[in-house]
Design brief:
With 215 residues, the protein is mainly alpha-helical. The chain contains 12 helices and no strands.
Length: 215
Amino acid sequence: MLGRRRPTTAPAVYSACSLLLQYPDAELRALRPELAAAVAELPESAAREALERFLGWWVETDPLVAEQHYVETIDLHKRSGLYLTFYGAGDKRERGSELLRLKQLYRSAGLPLEGTELPDYLPVMLEFAAGAPEGRGEIVLREHRPALELVRLSLRELESPYADPLEAVCLTLGELPAADRDRVGNLIAGGPPSELVGLEPFAPPEVMPSAGAPR
């Protein structure tokens, strides 16, 4: 994905969540001791407690069960997917423009997008937030706060442990502004834009992964 920088405090939460929210394959499971150590170094806070809860579930859960839960809860559930522009974009062209803007933003901050993931994939955005200079990464997260909140609420409703990393991110960003609360309510009432359902590709070719590319 993006080039890594060593984060501290709030960026450390984003860095940990950028990994914890990815598909829990064998490669990611091998990082559990490193991730647990990084979370243990965080100052005591509600965000740290949320990450510790998630890690506890992850360690105790059979790998195949965890993988199946991820697919059923995140990959296949429309209100808990991790591609954030899906929730707010009004049509295919609007979403494509937003994806291109994000990709250009990453490049201008010195953290160009690498690999095949789309720039609105939450783990990519969190990795950017962890390493971007001058707080630019957190600005990106705040721009997409209503979508973040929608996913958090959906995962909590589904009683998914993945609600905890989302909780940690939202806690780090602080209280949800009133205007964003209204937008979350509208998203809950309306659901994802109907114009996007079933449409491929969602973005211009320059920001889409190649066909058949791995996760």
